[in-house]
Design brief:
Structural class: mainly beta
Order of helices and strands: EEEEEEEEEEEEEEEEEEEEE
Helix content: under 10%
Largest sheet: 9 strands, antiparallel
CATH architecture of the largest domain: Sandwich
Number of helices: 0
CATH superfamily of the largest domain: Jelly Rolls
């Protein structure tokens, strides 16, 4: 399966226009944003757990990172409420689920296979002082990528000319790029050489962003 697999092209996905698709586990559905592969895949996905649903135990051979968008995500390592950013590098494993239900934004098979850095962070707690109406937290940085979370006041603008490509998710609120409105849970991916400029709407915006990583995009090695 290939979805938005050409990383040389800009992509915008409006979440509310994507049908929920069932996963192999009852009660777990997903909206696929990009994907190369079938059940073992390099993938970027919004996943929804119904209350009381669980996924089977599995090992993250290619690593996993996710944001909890609403509800509480749970595994044997703890409870992770909305606003949590989690990195589970290659070789980690867990049994995910949610007693109350939750929605997460998750990326699979996009780690350096030698990475062993595992953590969870409250994104709001990491925010620095605002500059020009934009408060930003650096959530992770390595030789491949930089991951940030920004909170924009209404009308504030976030820009980036980072090399290696740019990807963002609107976590809350809305943002406008080139006249197009990116609403809650909308996703944007820009290839190498593209400049980002988004302006928060009247309700402000909370934006998760990753840069540099598209230089390493491709099918997972299994």
């Amino acid at each position: 399966m290939e979805i938005n697999a050409d990383f040389s092209k800009p992509v915008v996905m409006h979440s509310d226009q994507i049908e929920w698709q069932p996963s192999p586990m009852k009660g777990v559905e997903r909206r696929m944003l990009d994907r190369i592969g079938d059940e073992v895949a390099r993938a970027t996905t919004i996943v929804r757990y119904a209350p009381g649903s669980h996924f089977s135990a599995h090992t993250h051979t290619g690593g996993e990172e996710f944001i909890v968008l609403d509800g509480v995500f749970q595994d044997e390592h703890g409870d992770f409420p909305a606003g949590t950013y989690v990195r589970n590098p290659p070789t980690t494993s867990h049994i995910p689920g949610s007693e109350t239900g939750c929605t997460i934004f998750v990326k699979l098979w996009q780690f350096d296979l030698a990475d062993r850095t595992q953590f969870s962070k409250n994104m709001e707690a990491e925010l620095g002082a605002p500059v020009g109406g934009v408060a930003t937290a650096k959530l992770h940085e390595d030789d491949r990528e930089i991951v940030t979370y920004s909170q924009l006041d209404a009308g504030a603008t976030l820009t980036s000319e980072a090399p290696g490509g740019i990807e963002l998710l609107v976590v809350e609120g809305s943002a406008i790029r080139d006249g197009e409105v990116l609403a809650r849970h909308d996703w944007l991916r820009l290839p190498e050489g593209h400049r980002l400029s988004v302006t928060a709407g009247d309700d402000g915006a909370k934006i998760w962003m990753k840069t540099g990583h598209l230089r390493f995009a491709g099918a997972p090695r299994v």
